[in-house]
């Protein structure tokens, strides 16, 4: 394997998980992740915010908190204030998170988030010393129209604020049409997009070579080996398969 950034395997639980089932799953994952002497990848689970504190406790009692980090799924751009229902980056940090997913296509679609909104949130995450996992990706219509690379280039340019660097920012390329559908792009298309993203990052940032670029969209234990061996794929953002410890570990172990 070519030397590059330490791979990151992140689980996005989305709006799933209650304390009862979650505890059993996280304990299973802790056991699996503690097996290897040393992990060669970083693991992050991003549960709903309601579970962050409890999960931090479960990981600590399992002595797996050094192996499995926690993340939020969104944050507000402001540190505090009159924003009913929102959560700030500082609050996520306070609840045990070290990461936060920002600009996921479900937020861009369901909540009308623009690149500018995302950039403001990423800046807030950085200010709170959280690592931002910034999602980009084209819709099926955009891909069929030959616009995939242009869309992703625009999203990266406009969603990353000044101050972004490899140490506080991760890119997740998630083609919208691959999320939750069981469909994935051909490896050659993943390779082309990740190369393009690397070039964009290297052009703009001095440490562009070191940013992690994750692939996301229907990653499963079965397709993970093929996806994770592609150059410039530095890990995965996993939705559905992250809800089951054995499946998530089945993906992570490819790079563990
Ligand atoms: P999926 O979701 O793995 O269920 O396709 C990925 C994501 O939305 O991050």
Main attributes?
single chain; 256 residues; TIM Barrel; eight-stranded parallel beta barrel; binds 2-phosphoglycolic acid
Q: Can you offer a commentary on this structure?
A:
With about 260 residues, the protein is an alpha/beta fold. The chain has one domain (about 10-15, about 45-75, about 100-255): TIM Barrel. Helices cover about 40% and strands about 15% of the residues. It is built from 10 helices and 8 strands. An 8-stranded parallel β-barrel has the order 1-2-3-4-5-6-7-8, surrounded by 5 helices. It is globular. The mean pLDDT is about 95. It binds 2-phosphoglycolic acid (PGA). 2-phosphoglycolic acid binds near residues 180, 216, 217, 218 and 239.
Major sheet characteristics: 8 strands, parallel, barrel
Q: What's the CATH H-level homologous superfamily?
A: Aldolase class I
Associated small molecules: 2-phosphoglycolic acid
> What is the annotated CATH architecture?
Alpha-Beta Barrel
Number of strands: 8
- The third-level CATH topology is TIM Barrel
The H/E string reads: EHEHEHEHHEHHEHEHEH
- N-to-C terminal Cα separation, in Å? 13 Å
Structurally, the number of domains stands at 1
Total helices: the number is 10
Assign an overall shape.
Answer: globular
Output the CATH class name. Alpha Beta
Q: Give me the Rg, rounded.
A: 17 Å
Mean pLDDT: 97
Helix content: 25-40%
> Helix/strand/pairing class, anyone?
alpha/beta
Low-confidence stretches: none
Oligomer: single chain
| Sequence of strands across the biggest β-sheet | 1-2-3-4-5-6-7-8
Q: What percentage of amino acids are in beta strands?
A: 15-25%
